[in-house]
């Protein structure tokens, strides 16, 4: 065991050193079985490990059996869930396993899900279903491939218990996963401190967040303007959230449960429960079956992010001047629009278009997607696969891969795309082709694909389609 590289990593107890106000020390559950179902070899170098030196058994010992003498911290947080304030939250089925510096010098958290009960389990079992774990791995990898700022799953271990769930045929199989994220400090972590009227802790935790995740650009903050760093932090968070919302929207991703306890203070995407990728472009598409009012629908995501930022500003008002936060928040839509346009254009292989032309092309593309109800991911994949350099010369060489029909919209789209291509050099065309490949993966992850991956696992424990899917993601 001492040779287990996970146990020898240089964990830094940075959050732990802030003291007991933010967490409870907990133990991991003991599971009857440990079967490694997923190891993210792509992530290992990021945390300084060579995959060839890490065995499956190392994963199992560290992230299934939780061997070693580490202290596990269930983080305390509250949250606003579907509009209602909930002060009974906290890590109810997970804990912070450890923090470490990545190869890039940044601080990362390894956190669990499904690792047993904690003081925040509220009578629930503290477990994660295997299907839930598989879905979370798939979401993290797919979003990463699509360029979304996301947490990723490092390991998934099946644990041999039978679980009962209302939203899965039960009994269903169990698992425990370890997630690598920037931080698991949530908007709700600050909401809790505000609720408890602990402005001293709010300031302490903000200092921690700024130091670890918002390093100030030079020149350093002037001593006579001590609040400046807090104002800058909030302003940057607004920008990061606007970018994240734009990334979800361009990826065609509906997170499904954008409660404030599922919003990372670093602006990273995480917690993939009832998420879905949209089959067609439909702003009203809703992922969670229990989201009856469509609060967290696909099209509402940017608005919800800005509303959540507003809720956060209430919790931070003891430290950051509210007027400054309001000013930053007013820029949310502007940041969002420019990120969204840039990302949509990159799905079309383009960059650096004059603003009005970019806007026009994105509007035409959305119009087409809406009109034809062509598959969202398929449209961009179709473009990637049918793209031909001749399109630059001959407008009629552009085939109708989108099943758009001879509509006026399709003619307008073709005309504009052709016009843009016609002033593109040979070298720029190669870059365009590369961008198309980078922005549009060969495979998509609709509900059908997830079920097609899950069914062989459920029926005959066949992990081949799961592994194949992950492999194809790199194409
Ligand atoms: N089976 C369970 N046992 C105990 N607590 C649970 C369980 N499922 C959810 N919870 C708790 O309910 C709250 C909301 O759950 P949610 O699904 O958003 O978070 P999560 O998926 O468990 O964790 P994370 O947000 O870290 O991804 C959290 O406090 C979570 O810990
Ligand atoms: Mg959550």
From TrEMBL:
Pfam families: SelO. Mg(2+) binds at residues 262, 271. It catalyses: L-tyrosyl-[protein] + ATP = O-(5'-adenylyl)-L-tyrosyl-[protein] + diphosphate; L-seryl-[protein] + ATP = 3-O-(5'-adenylyl)-L-seryl-[protein] + diphosphate; L-seryl-[protein] + UTP = O-(5'-uridylyl)-L-seryl-[protein] + diphosphate; L-threonyl-[protein] + ATP = 3-O-(5'-adenylyl)-L-threonyl-[protein] + diphosphate. Keywords: ATP-binding, Magnesium, Manganese, Metal-binding, Nucleotide-binding, Nucleotidyltransferase, Transferase. Coiled coil: none annotated. The keyword Magnesium applies. Signal peptide: none annotated. ATP binds at residues 90, 92-93, 113, 125-126, 179, 186, 271. NCBIfam families: PRK00029.1. Nucleotidyltransferase involved in the post-translational modification of proteins. It can catalyze the addition of adenosine monophosphate (AMP) or uridine monophosphate (UMP) to a protein, resulting in modifications known as AMPylation and UMPylation. Belongs to the SELO family. This is Protein nucleotidyltransferase YdiU. The gene is ydiU.
């Amino acid at each position: 065991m001492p040779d287990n590289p996970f146990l020898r990593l240089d964990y830094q107890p940075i959050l732990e050193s802030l003291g007991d106000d933010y967490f409870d020390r907990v133990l991991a559950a003991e599971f009857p079985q440990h079967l490694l179902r997923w190891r993210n070899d792509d992530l290992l170098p990021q945390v300084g490990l060579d995959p060839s030196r890490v065995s499956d058994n190392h994963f199992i010992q560290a992230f299934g059996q939780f061997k070693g003498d580490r202290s596990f911290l269930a983080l305390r947080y509250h949250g606003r869930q579907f509009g209602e304030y909930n002060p009974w939250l906290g890590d109810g089925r997970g804990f912070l396993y450890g923090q470490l510096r990545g190869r890039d010098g940044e601080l990362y958290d390894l956190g669990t899900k499904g690792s047993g009960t904690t003081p925040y389990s509220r009578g629930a079992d503290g477990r994660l279903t295997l299907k839930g774990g598989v879905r979370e791995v798939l979401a993290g990898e797919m979003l990463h491939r699509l360029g979304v700022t996301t947490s990723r799953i490092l390991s998934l271990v099946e644990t041999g218990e039978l679980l009962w769930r209302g939203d899965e045929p039960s009994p269903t199989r169990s698992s425990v996963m370890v997630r690598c994220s920037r931080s698991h400090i949530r908007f709700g972590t600050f909401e809790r401190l505000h609720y408890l009227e602990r402005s001293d802790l709010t300031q302490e935790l903000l200092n921690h967040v700024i130091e670890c995740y918002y390093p100030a650009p030079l020149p350093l903050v002037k001593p006579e303007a001590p609040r400046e760093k807090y104002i800058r932090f909030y302003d940057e968070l607004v920008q990061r959230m606007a970018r994240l919302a734009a990334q979800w929207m361009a990826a065609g991703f509906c997170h499904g449960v954008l409660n404030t306890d599922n919003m990372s203070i670093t602006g990273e995407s995480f917690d993939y429960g009832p998420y879905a990728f949209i089959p067609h472009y439909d702003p009203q598409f809703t992922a969670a079956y229990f989201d009856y009012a469509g609060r967290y629908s696909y099209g509402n995501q940017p608005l919800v992010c800005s509303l959540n930022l507003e809720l956060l500003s209430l919790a931070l008002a003891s430290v950051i001047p509210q007027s400054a936060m309001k000013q930053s928040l007013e820029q949310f839509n502007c940041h969002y629009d420019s990120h969204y346009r840039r990302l949509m254009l990159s799905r079309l292989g383009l960059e650096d278009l004059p603003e009005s032309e970019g806007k026009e092309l994105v509007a035409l593309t959305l119009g087409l997607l809406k009109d034809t109800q062509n598959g969202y991911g398929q449209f961009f994949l179709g473009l990637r696969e049918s793209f031909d350099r001749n399109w630059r010369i001959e407008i009629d060489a552009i085939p109708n891969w989108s099943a758009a029909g001879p509509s006026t919209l399709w003619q307008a789209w073709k005309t504009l795309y052709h016009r843009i291509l016609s002033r593109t050099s040979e070298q720029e065309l190669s870059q365009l082709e590369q961008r198309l490949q980078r922005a549009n993966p060969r495979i998509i992850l609709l509900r059908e694909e997830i079920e097609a991956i899950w069914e062989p696992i459920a029926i005959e424990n066949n992990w081949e389609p799961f592994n194949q899917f992950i492999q194809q993601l790199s194409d």
